[in-house]
Amino acid sequence: MAKKILLILDTFTDVCGRSIAWLTLLMMVVMFASVVLRYLFQVGFVMLDESIVYMHAMVFMIGAAFTLKRGGHVRVDIFYNRFSDAGKAWVDLIGTLFLLLPVSIFIGLVSWEYVVSSWRIFENSPKVDGIPAIFLLKSLIVLMSGLLIIQGLAELLRNFLILSGVKLDTHGKPEQSIGI
User: Fold this and answer.
1) Secondary structure class of 174 (helix, strand, coil)
2) Which secondary-structure segment (H or E) carries 67?
3) Between the N and C ends of the chain, which has fewer C-beta atoms within 10 Å?
4) What is the DSSP string of 19-40?
5) Could you tell me how many helices (H) and strands (E) the chain has, helices first?
6) Backbone φ, ψ for residue 168 (5° rounding)
């Protein structure tokens, strides 16, 4: 059962991360268009420039859980790389329990009213020609904390499985047994 839950949580994070990664391509195209319009034609669009900021925020905030899953987060590896799999699992378990989850929950709770108040007034860009959806941008804060909590639970489960002696493949997923 735990293996199945881990697979579901990891798959959800993978889908979110891989989907949002495509936004970097769109962001690059929009940024290129903005630069060409500004420097070749002396034309600028506030909404175009703000859309780059929105996309950038989406990539980083929605992609944070995917980065965690892939091991791309910041870690001091002085000792960690020398640890056994069980030692690494203990470090990750303790870090998840006492750092990742409390901080993610704190961010979600503290930002909740900030986001809700933005939604109440459908907060817009302070610029006249800007994107009229600051409330959506601010919602990314709560979304990020939720995605990090989901991936944090997957990390807890993964580390409990490792400490229980369950074999995981090179991607941290439970190895599939082949029934004959």
Assistant:
1) strand
2) helix 46-69
3) C
4) HHHHHHHHHHHHHHHHHHHHHH
5) 6, 0
6) -115, 150
Which amino acid belongs to residue 149?
I
Contact between 17 and 97 under an 8 Å Cβ cutoff? The reply is: no
Measured CA to CA, the distance from residue 44 to residue 150 in angstroms comes to 40
- Tell the burial category of 61 from Cβ atoms under 10 Å away from its Cβ (0-12, 13-18, 19+): buried
User: What does the pLDDT look like over 59-78, one tens digit per residue?
Assistant: 999 999 999 999 877 776 78
**The pair of three-digit structure tokens given for residue 29, joined into one six-digit string:** 């195209």
Structure token pair of residue 25: 């391509």
Question: What pLDDT, on the 0 to 100 scale, is given for residue 152?
Answer: 97
DSSP H helical segments within 72-168, as ranges? 77-80, 85-95, 101-120, 134-163
Q: Which two tokens stand for residue 133?
A: 């959806």
Cα distances (angstroms) measured from residue 52 to each of 33, 56, 135, 136 = 11, 6, 16, 14
Tokens of 134: 């600051």
pTM: 0.87
Q: So where are the chain's domains?
A: 2-73+80-163
Taking alpha carbons only, the member of 24, 25, 26, 52 closest to residue 38 is: 52
